[in-house]
Specification:
RNA-binding; Nucleotide-bd_a/b_plait_sf; UBP1-associated protein 2C-like; Alpha-Beta Plaits; 5-stranded antiparallel sheet; 8 strands; elongated; RBD_domain_sf; RRM_dom
Length: 168
Amino acid sequence: MSLQNISQPLSHDQINKIVEGVTVLLPGVLENVLSGTKTTSSHDEFTRHKLYIGSLGIHTTSETLRQIFSAYGEIKDAFVVRDKFGMSKEYGFVIFKNVRSMLMALKDPYKSIDGKMTITKVARSRIRDIEDESLRTIYVSNVSHNMSPSKLLEYFSSYGVIQKGVGN
């Protein structure tokens, strides 16, 4: 089941209500959302200082990232992204307190961490043009077989106009 093309961008309150509602329908969703989310009061400042570190080993920890990247300057946060079972997704992020430190870390983008060659890049912002259809698309999976498409459409309609709902 997927819902596509919500015609208006959703507010933070609407997104929170959707997550709360979906959590009732699908236990465990809230933990997945929260485990993969880091927030800050200034998104622009957050992303200007943020690096993506890819190809990490499964045993690399957030503390390891912090230790290695602190050689380039003061760090606000460093974390390895994990799945709902706590297993590393083999990438992470480091957020520096200033841009200069981030640029120093980028001078050598390939670093050996825990015996694995990694790649360091500037993290991309998740915020894009609201006209981008992918920002207005919600995919809902693992829905119970006895959940009717009309019931899901009715639920999500309370958050805005739905242009198209597609059931698989």
